[in-house]
Amino acid sequence: MERMTWTSRKPDFTGPLDAVIPRIRTPAVRLLAQGYGAHLFAENGTIPPFRKLDIGLFARALEHLLLCAVTKPDRCIYRIVGEALKSRLGFNPVGRNYFDYVPEIRLDYAQRSIFMVIDQPCGFRAEVEQTYSDGRSILIESVAFPVLSNRAGVDGLVLFCDQTVERLDHLDFHGRENATYLGSNVVRRDLIDLGYGVDEGFEDLVNTA
Predict the structure, then answer these.
(1) What are the residues whose beta carbons fall under 8 Å from the beta carbon of 56, sequence distance 6 or more?
(2) I need a labelling partner for 14 at 20 to 30 A (CA). Which of 33, 90, 98, 135 fits?
(3) Is residue 1 situated within a structural domain?
């Protein structure tokens, strides 16, 4: 078994959304970032409830979107998952807890990153290595933004967009029981200031093996 080496890593970049958008590498992630930014501009920086987001601003990215409901201290439940994500993951994760797929050694860091999004509030862009049960690893890009919750027992919602960084047409995970998602490791992260600041002391724990 490969031995993992873990180390703390500060964000690669911290800045406002318009400074982070040029750093985005994938079209679906860029669409969500631009659409969310358009909402903030139109609403004077107000964080939206999900029902008030204009989906038309990022409609072409819908198959890559997911929405998670966050309840402290230990729940980040998949509520809405796009079809492209279900296909790549190898199953439908709706109703499952994202934190169950985080290595125990990284759990506190992962929880802090999610809670930061809804508490600050702020966003992030991350490049993440996903691992699968058949031994493959895939580099994906993800962006996350806060969404207000109006449900009792839910502290906040996080809207994500995930897309593979490289073209992977030859990797068809749809219907393959032996190629399901196991977990992920953050490679790098940018913090996005939405006008409310960011957690200046935030660090990731990353596998450098």
Answers:
(1) none
(2) 98
(3) no
Structure token digits, residue 158: 């996080």
Whether a cis peptide bond, with omega within 30° of 0, leads into 103 is no
Place of tokens 């450098």: 208
Domain that holds residue 94: 6-207
Burial classification of residue 188, based on how many CB atoms lie within 10 Å of its CB (0-12 exposed, 13-18 middle, 19 or more buried): middle
Looking at the structure of the chain, the number of domains it has is 1
pLDDT of residue 167: 53
The rounded mean pLDDT for the chain is 90
Angle 54-78-151 (CA atoms, 0-180°, nearest 5)?
65
CATH (domain of 22): 3.30.450.20
Q: Which residues of 130-166 are buried (b: 16+ CB within 10 A; e: fewer)?
A: bebeeeeebebbbbbbbbbbeeeebebbbbbbbbbee
Whether residue 137 is contained in a domain is answered as yes
Tell me what percent of the chain is helix, strand and coil, each rounded to the nearest 5: 30, 35, 35
Half-sphere exposure of 147 (CA within 13 A, CB side): 21
- Residue 192 is predicted with a pLDDT of 98
Q: Does some domain include residue 40?
A: yes
Q: Is residue 80 part of a domain?
A: yes
DSSP one-letter code for 151: S
Query: Distance between CA atoms of 16 and 19, rounded to whole angstroms?
Result: 5
State how far the Cα of 152 lies from the Cα of 173, in Å rounded to an integer.
36
Pick the more confident residue, 160 or 184. Answer: 160
